[in-house]
Amino acid sequence: MWLQEFDGLEGQPPDPRVWSHDLGGGGWGDGQQQVYTDDPANVALDGAGNLRITARREPDGTITSARLTTRDGFATRFGRVEARIKVPGGRATWPAFWMLGTDIDDVGWPACGEIDVMEHVGADSRRAHGTLHGPGYSGLAGGVGRAIDAGTDLSDDFHDYAVAWDESGITWLLDDREQHRLTPSDVPGPWPFDHEFFLLINLAIGGDWPGHAADEPELPAVLLVDRIRVDDLAQTSARQG
Predict the structure, then answer these.
(1) Strand partners for 172
(2) CATH architecture entry for 2-240
(3) CA-to-CA separations, 172 to 115, 132, 179, in angstroms, rounded
């Protein structure tokens, strides 16, 4: 088992042995508005056992936020990958918990593979999205996945977002309830999900998501992460049984 619980004093950074920062702006490929920083005002522990990522408007009008990655600190091949998250809700918010193949520098994206454990758009408060991106099925209009209707506003409380990932396919779960599953026969191209992946978590603002609210974003917006856990699937099954 690998576990991050984000205990510590308010304002401290998450463990730098595990987490690094993706920095900068430029839209990130789909018209997002934020600039990612490593400023504690954008990303820090909240002193109550959570990681807090805050999107905020700076005095000069720039929107800043944060994107964390375990690219240099942790990767996994298969297992149950889960995060307990409270999404911010509100217009134009776009939080995500996701994974990229560690061979991204060698083969590029989407050949490395992308597993979106959870994406949430604030204007569509009841639904979380679980998606795969690979060669021939990538981008906002091309990924293969499904929207999960939770039946409640996901920004009202913490929820557990997970995938159970093995050689045969990937299953998405919301609060331990299986939502959908994809296997190599379900995608219109190669299946690049049989090697190591690292984790990412971020809070984007705006962007070109279909149907995304074009209104002025409601800021500040806060994404809270209570824990992130990766288990061997055999251990997970034994624990649940």
Answers:
(1) 163, 180
(2) Sandwich (2.60)
(3) 10, 11, 6
Per-residue DSSP letter, 156: G
In the chain, the N- to C-terminal Cα span, in Å, equals 17
**Given the structure tokens 């454990």, which residue do they identify?**
117
Question: Per-domain residue ranges for the chain?
Answer: 2-240
Phi, psi of 165, deg, nearest 5? -125, 120
In single-letter form, the type of residue at position 149 comes to D
How far apart CA 49 and CA 84 sit, in angstroms, is 12
**Cα angle at 1 between 16 and 166, to 5 degrees?**
110
Residue 238: in which H helix or E strand, if any? helix 233-240
Say if residue 236's pLDDT is above 60.
no
DSSP, res 8: S
Enumerate the active-site residues. Answer: 114, 119
CA distance 11 to 232: 32
User: What's this model's pTM, rounded to 2 decimal places?
Assistant: 0.95
At residue 142, the pLDDT reads 95
Residue-wise pLDDT tens digits, 81-118: 999 999 999 889 999 999 999 999 999 999 999 999 99
144: tokens are 């293969």
- The predicted structure's pLDDT at residue 239: 39
CA distance 149 to 234: 28
Closest CA to 47 of 3, 6, 88, 4: 6
User: Cβ distance 83 to 154 under 8 Å?
Assistant: no
pLDDT 10s digits, 189-205: 999 999 999 999 999 99
